[in-house]
Design goal:
Elements: E1 9-17, H1 42-51, E2 57-60, E3 66-70, E4 77-80, H2 82-91, H3 93-110, E5 115-118, H4 130-148, E6 155-156, H5 164-172, E7 177-180, E8 185-189, E9 196-197, E10 209-212, E11 218-223, H6 226-234, H7 241-255, E12 259-265, E13 269-270, E14 273-274, H8 276-289, E15 293-295, H9 298-304, E16 310-313, H10 352-377, H11 384-389, H12 392-395, H13 401-405, H14 412-430, H15 435-438, H16 445-461, H17 469-477, H18 490-497, H19 503-517, E17 526-527, E18 530-537, E19 542-549, E20 555-561, E21 572-578, E22 583-589, H20 596-610, H21 615-632, H22 642-661, H23 663-684, H24 687-711, H25 715-730, H26 738-748, H27 760-769
Length: 777
């Protein structure tokens, strides 16, 4: 008897990975966010929990040793917000490259890549003007094609928000498909049958549908399985890959669809659900080992299963469209619809309407100015909106402003004008980022950030109009009242944000302090968007700096005066002269005005300048620690005064010095002293001292991993890690080895070839020390 062939069901999990732009528009630097500790900001925290974790997701044995790592993006359908990828490319290029590589590998496997594009900065497209919505789509598509080296077939709609006009824009832009909530669909029409109302039921998920726009254009839509999405997002399905697999089997058996797919926020895979990335990796293993499912992506499935049936979407409140997180349509982003996250039960979201009205009024003025001046600059030979749409590479930090403007052969003055107009348009788009309306109160971080972007846009445009743009905005924002009386209203928030230092003044302050506290080889000429062209110390009181904003192309002459150079005070008067417009402002700065992120940079420079011991000092310290230990034995008391404090501080400095000077250069001469230093801390150190040492080890293991990534594995570096781990583990320290594991794994599984003279037995020993249960044979 012939064995019946078991048909595999196509399986797609989609992750929407996105963070709003967080940079201070004055400087391009993300401020320190204390709520994200121990990380500097939320981008960094989620990068560790999720974005990087999914490039090296662990699959563990029963005794929790690493059997394999999976780049989940090779199997997960995904989109990344362009603003997030811009940040990641700059700050975490290794993670960034692995995401791009995963898409390329999925394309090799399936014929179509897993990645799809996203509308640029997550504005709600049905609420945008036609031109702004088109720009959002085109900037997202352009960002995608530059990064992934192919055209995007699909596009993630922010909050899956859509209406018929958006369908037309998508079709005109070359987008073939979108992913939507099943609750956005009101009826379907199967071939040869009349339109059938869903009657409040979810749309079928097992096949794609045609969507038709207001002008008759068509794209395809996939409606995800809502039970899976809800279970993954809120039902903790990612805590047990076995149970999740059984749920998929049940759906396959009971619903008999050729496709099972779902979509969620990508951050659920490791951030919202800790170790959710590992559950996904385990699920991938199970799918590959069995004959029930085949993992694919939307473009690949669509190529073999073109849509035949048509879907009709709900119109939403006021016929503005629908979304996946507002049951009323897209009302969450322009009025008090009742949808919110968090907050007291008595709170309302009436502030949403005047907030959007304020931005809309400002937008009308900005767009009028933009069109008028662009037409003047180009003698009506350049379409202003086409010019803006071509600005995508600068918006995504893939091209610098100077290079973008070069082909237009404008005068310096006109270049400056056009740069201001284009950047002002980008900030106009940023002020519509959806997060500003999503949550519970206007005093939250997200609405405040949107207001800051609106203020930056109007400041860039104010010089080109006689209208008071700020007054126009503040009139509307005054009606946007916070839920707590002490938080005031949108106008109060805007006025608070207007007190922020101009970027050139903050940059000047950094350059001054950098040169006061750092060693000469740590002097920096860059601060966010700003570059230091010239620095002159005129006398003990005065420094003069010429500074250029690389984004707006504005140049400033900043004169900083220290009123009390003989005293240990941090007080400066900084006068900034805009050399392009000949406008001048003066600011008196005190130490409490130094941003927290800048303080962290300066602390690091002070540490490198002061808290470092040379080799002779380390040897002397080692001798003193030995004698202290010997003398402290068998006595009924312990000297805990200034001597103890000095030895602890010196011990921490010695440990930092090991890494500061370069571990390999001095390790053989220093490792015995290093061990003795740890002996002292283990015996006499208090818990905060041990925590400090642990944090040093964690940080330096990550730095060492970066060096391995850059230079590869060498016998000498491997021996160092092995000896280092033996010593620290003997003293009950367990450093975070995540980054090292990520770098070493490709060598253990032969994805990377070590240097010719590298000893394979050493690599295997390193793998064992790093908790791997695999080896090179």
């Amino acid at each position: 008897m012939k064995t019946q062939h078991k048909e595999k069901t196509s399986l797609i999990f989609h992750g929407h990975f996105y963070q709003p732009p967080r940079e201070n528009p004055h400087t391009g630097i993300i401020g320190k966010q204390l709520s994200a500790l121990p990380y500097s900001d939320w981008n960094e925290r989620i990068q560790a929990d999720c974005y990087n974790a999914n490039t090296h997701s662990r699959y563990l044995s029963g005794v929790r040793r690493i059997l394999s790592m999976t780049n989940n993006y090779e199997y997960l359908s995904f989109n990344f917000g362009p603003t997030l990828l811009s940040w990641m490319q700059k700050n975490h290029p290794y993670t960034y490259e692995l995401i791009l590589d995963a898409d390329a590998r999925s394309e090799q496997r399936l014929g179509y890549g897993n990645a799809i594009a996203q509308a640029y900065n997550h504005s709600i497209l049905p609420l945008c003007t036609k031109e702004d919505a088109r720009t959002q789509i085109l900037w997202g598509l352009d960002d995608f094609s530059h990064r992934f080296k192919r055209e995007a077939l699909g596009l993630w709609l922010p909050e899956t928000a859509i209406n018929k006009n958006v369908v037309d824009l998508l079709a005109q832009s070359g987008v073939r498909f979108v992913i939507l909530s099943p609750w956005q669909c009101r009826s379907i029409k199967e071939v040869g049958k009349p339109i059938a109302s869903l009657g409040g039921k979810p749309a079928p998920y097992g096949r794609p549908f045609l969507l038709r726009g207001a002008q008759g254009s068509t794209i395809y839509a996939f409606f995800y399985n809502h039970q899976l999405a809800e279970g993954i997002s809120f039902g903790h399905y990612l805590r047990d890959a076995d149970l999740l697999y059984h749920r998929l089997l049940t759906i396959k058996r009971e619903e008999r669809q050729s496709l099972i797919h779902t979509a969620t926020d990508g951050e659920i895979y490791g951030h919202h659900e800790p170790y959710g990335d590992m559950a996904l990796a385990a699920l991938i293993k199970k799918v590959e080992a069995r004959d029930d499912f085949t993992i694919t992506n939307y473009a690949a499935y669509l190529s073999n299963h073109p849509a035949q049936d048509e879907a009709f979407l709900h119109l939403g409140e006021e016929e503005k469209g629908t979304s996946w997180s507002c049951s009323h349509g897209v009302s969450r982003w322009y009025k008090n619809c009742g949808c919110h996250t968090g907050g007291d039960d008595s709170w309302n979201q009436n502030w949403r309407t005047p907030l959007r009205k304020g931005f809309d009024t400002l937008r009308e003025e900005l767009d009028t100015i933009y069109v008028r001046i662009v037409q003047r600059l180009f003698d009506d030979q350049q379409d202003p909106w086409q010019l803006l749409n071509s600005f995508a590479t600068v918006a995504s930090a893939l091209t610098d402003m100077k290079s973008f403007l070069a082909p237009y052969a404008l005068s310096n003055e006109d270049e400056l004008t056009l740069a201001n107009l284009l950047i002002g348009q980008q900030y106009k788009h940023f002020c519509y980022t959806s997060c500003g309306w999503f949550f519970n109160d206007i005093a939250g971080i997200e609405p405040r950030q949107n207001i800051t972007y609106a203020l930056m846009a109007l400041q860039l445009y104010q010089r080109y109009t006689e209208k008071d743009l700020l007054a126009l905005l503040l009139d509307d924002l005054a009606q946007a009242k916070a839920n707590r009386k002490q938080d005031g209203n949108g106008k109060d928030i805007a006025l608070q944000e207007l007190k922020a230092l101009p970027g050139e003044v903050e940059a000047a302050l950094f350059y001054i302090l950098n040169r006061k506290v750092a060693q000469e080889n740590d002097y920096s000429n860059e601060y966010g968007y700003f570059f230091l062209d010239q620095y002159t110390k005129q006398d003990t009181h005065t420094q003069v700096m010429k500074i250029t904003n690389k984004l707006t192309l504005s140049t400033y002459l900043c004169t900083a005066t220290d009123p009390n150079p003989e005293k240990s005070t941090l007080e400066y008067t900084i006068t900034a002269l805009d050399l392009n417009n000949q406008t001048q402002q003066s600011f008196f700065l005190e130490q409490d005005m130094i941003p927290l992120r800048m303080r962290d940079l300066l602390f690091e420079q002070i540490e490198r300048n002061f808290c470092i011991l040379d080799e002779a000092q380390i040897k002397c310290l080692s001798s003193n620690l030995f004698h202290y230990d010997s003398l402290a034995k068998n006595i009924p008391y312990l000297p805990m005064g200034s001597l103890y404090q000095q030895l602890i501080g010196s011990s921490l400095s010695a440990i930092k010095s090991l890494f500061m000077y370069g571990t390999l250069a001095m390790w053989n001469r220093y490792k015995d002293d290093f061990s003795m230093t740890l002996d002292f801390i283990a015996k006499f150190g208090k818990q905060p001292d041990r925590q400090m040492v642990a944090s040093i080890f964690n940080h330096e293991m990550a730095i060492l991993a970066q060096k391995f990534q850059t230079y590869g594995l060498h016998n000498k570096s491997i021996r160092f890690v092995l000896e280092f781990l033996v010593i620290v583990r003997n003293h009950n320290f367990q450093p975070d080895l995540t980054a090292l594991q990520d770098v070493v794994y490709p060598y253990l599984c032969m994805q990377k070839t070590p240097h010719k003279n590298t000893d394979i037995t050493l690599i295997n020993a390193l793998g064992e020390a790093l908790n791997f249960d695999i080896a090179i044979h």
